[in-house]
C-alpha cells in the first residue's frame, strides 16, 4: 500500500464509530505520541491499573527482557483508545505496542494501521482458532489475543431447588423455558438480561441468535426469527421483566443480586461480585436451541504491533508482545483481568486452579468473534440493525419477523 492510499484509507476508516462493550475513565502515565530512542510506547485499555500495579510491572519486565531501555505505558478508555490509535496512525505517530478490544482490530487493519503476524513474526500457533479469528481479516492475522471473556447463565441455587429444577437438566431452549415456568409457578422471577439499544444489547442477544443457527449476514432468516421470538415470548409470558429493554449488563446484574431472579445472563467480569451475593449461585453455559452450548461472543483484547516509520523497532516490539503472551504471563494477566486464556493449556491450568472457571472455559471454547466470518468493519452496522430489531420486537412495535426483515434491509 502506498503512503498516499494508506492515508486516504486511514482518513476514511477514522469516521467509523465502533461501539465498545466495556469502558472506564481515562488515566495517563505518559504524553501522547511515539517515543524516541530506547523508550517503547505501550497503549492499553486498562486505565484502572495504576503505575504500581502487577500489570504495569509485567510491561516493564517484558520491556527489560526485550532489550528496551524503558517502556512508557498509557491506559485509555476503550473508545478513546480507538480514536487515538486511528489519529496516531494518520500522523505516523503510533505506539510500538497497542492493546485494543478485539472488534477494533478489523477497523485498524482496514485502515492499514497494523502489521500482520506474518510481517512481525509473532507466533500465534498456540492460540485457540476461535479466539484468534477476531483478529483476522482477509486471511491475515493482526495481533495476538491476550485473553477472552464471554457470557453464561448465572443461577440462584435456592430458587431452583425450591422450584424442583435441576440445573443439569437444562440442555436447550425448551428445557430452559420449562425451568423458568417452574420458578414462576413458585412466585419468583425467571431470567434477566440486557437488551438495551447499544452494543451491549447485541452482545447479549448473540448467543441466542447464533444458538439458533442464524448468521449475521442474514438477520431475517427463520433461525434468527426463532431467537427473537424466544425473547419476546419470555416477556409476554412474564418469564423475563420488561426492564430488560433498558437494562445494561450492570443493571441486569443488580436485578439478579436482589435474589428474586432464577437466572441472569452475564459475563466473567461479574465473578468477583458473584462471591458477594447473599445466596448460593452456580453457572451453566447458555444453551443452543437444539442443545449443547451456544456460541457466545468473545470480549477481550488483542496485542498488536502498529506500523512504524522506523521498521528496526519491530524486533524489540515483537519480543515485548511475545513476553506478554507467553503461557506463564498469560496466566497471571488473565487471572487479574478475570479472563479466560487464549491457549488451551493455560485454560486447563485455570480450570484446575479454580473449578468455578470450568463453565467459563467451556463457554470460551465455543465462543465466536463478533467480526469473524470476514465481517470486519461491516459488523458495527449489522450490530446496530440487530439491537434496533430487538428493541422494536421487545417493545411490541413490530413482530420479530418484521423487525428482523427491516434490520436486514438496513444493512444493505
Write a brief structural summary.
By secondary structure, this protein is of the alpha/beta class.
Your description of this structure?
This protein has 412 residues and is an alpha/beta fold. The protein is 43% helix and 12% strand. It is built from 18 helices and eleven strands. The chain has helices at 3-13, 54-66, 78-90, 104-110, 117-120, 129-132, 157-162, 173-185, 199-211, 222-236, 249-257, 271-274, 314-324, 327-337, 344-353, 358-365, 379-394, 400-410, and strands spanning 39-44, 70-75, 97-101, 136-137, 140-141, 144-145, 151-156, 189-192, 261-267, 281-284, 301-304. It has a five-stranded mixed sheet. Strand 4 and strand 5 form a beta hairpin.
State the main characteristics.
412 residues, alpha/beta, four-stranded mixed beta sheet, 18 helices, 11 strands, 12% strand
Amino acid at each position: 500500500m502506498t503512503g498516499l492510499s494508506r492515508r486516504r484509507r486511514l482518513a476514511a476508516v477514522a469516521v467509523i464509530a465502533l461501539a465498545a462493550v466495556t469502558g472506564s475513565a481515562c488515566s495517563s502515565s505518559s504524553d501522547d505520541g511515539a517515543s524516541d530512542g530506547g523508550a517503547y510506547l505501550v497503549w492499553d485499555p486498562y486505565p484502572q491499573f495504576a503505575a504500581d500495579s502487577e500489570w504495569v510491572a509485567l510491561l516493564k519486565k517484558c520491556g527489560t527482557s526485550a532489550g528496551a531501555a524503558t517502556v512508557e505505558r498509557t491506559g485509555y478508555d476503550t473508545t478513546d483508545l480507538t480514536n487515538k490509535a486511528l489519529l496516531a496512525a494518520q500522523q505516523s505517530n503510533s505506539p510500538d505496542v497497542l492493546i485494543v478490544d478485539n472488534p477494533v482490530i478489523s477497523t485498524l487493519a482496514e485502515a492499514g494501521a497494523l502489521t500482520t503476524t506474518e510481517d512481525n513474526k509473532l507466533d500465534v500457533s498456540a492460540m485457540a482458532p476461535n479466539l484468534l479469528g477476531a483478529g483476522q481479516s482477509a486471511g491475515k492475522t493482526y495481533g495476538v489475543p491476550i485473553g477472552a471473556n464471554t457470557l453464561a447463565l448465572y443461577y440462584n441455587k435456592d430458587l431452583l431447588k425450591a422450584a424442583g429444577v435441576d440445573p443439569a437438566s437444562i440442555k436447550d431452549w425448551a428445557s430452559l423455558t420449562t425451568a423458568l415456568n417452574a420458578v414462576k409457578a413458585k412466585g419468583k422471577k425467571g431470567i434477566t438480561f440486557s437488551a438495551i439499544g447499544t452494543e451491549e444489547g447485541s452482545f447479549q442477544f448473540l448467543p441466542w441468535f447464533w444458538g439458533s443457527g442464524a448468521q449475521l449476514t442474514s438477520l431475517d432468516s427463520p433461525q434468527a426469527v426463532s431467537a427473537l421470538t424466544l425473547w419476546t415470548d419470555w416477556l409476554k409470558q412474564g418469564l423475563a421483566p420488561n426492564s430488560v429493554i433498558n437494562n445494561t449488563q450492570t443493571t441486569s446484574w443488580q436485578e439478579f443480586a436482589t435474589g428474586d431472579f432464577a437466572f441472569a445472563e452475564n459475563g466473567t467480569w461479574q465473578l468477583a461480585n458473584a462471591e458477594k451475593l447473599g445466596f448460593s449461585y452456580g453457572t451453566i453455559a447458555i444453551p443452543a436451541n437444539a442443545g449443547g452450548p451456544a456460541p457466545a461472543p468473545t470480549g477481550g483484547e488483542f496485542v498488536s504491533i502498529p506500523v512504524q516509520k522506523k521498521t528496526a523497532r519491530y524486533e524489540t516490539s515483537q519480543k515485548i508482545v511475545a513476553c506478554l503472551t507467553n503461557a506463564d504471563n498469560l496466566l497471571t494477566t488473565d487471572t487479574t483481568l478475570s479472563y479466560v486464556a487464549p491457549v488451551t493449556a493455560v485454560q486447563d491450568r485455570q480450570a484446575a486452579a479454580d473449578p468455578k472457571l470450568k463453565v467459563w472455559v467451556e463457554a470460551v471454547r465455543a465462543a465466536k468473534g463478533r467480526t469473524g466470518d470476514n465481517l470486519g468493519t461491516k459488523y458495527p452496522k449489522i450490530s446496530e440493525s440487530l439491537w434496533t430489531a430487538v428493541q422494536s420486537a421487545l417493545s411490541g412495535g413490530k413482530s420479530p419477523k418484521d423487525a428482523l426483515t427491516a434490520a436486514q434491509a438496513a444493512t444493505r
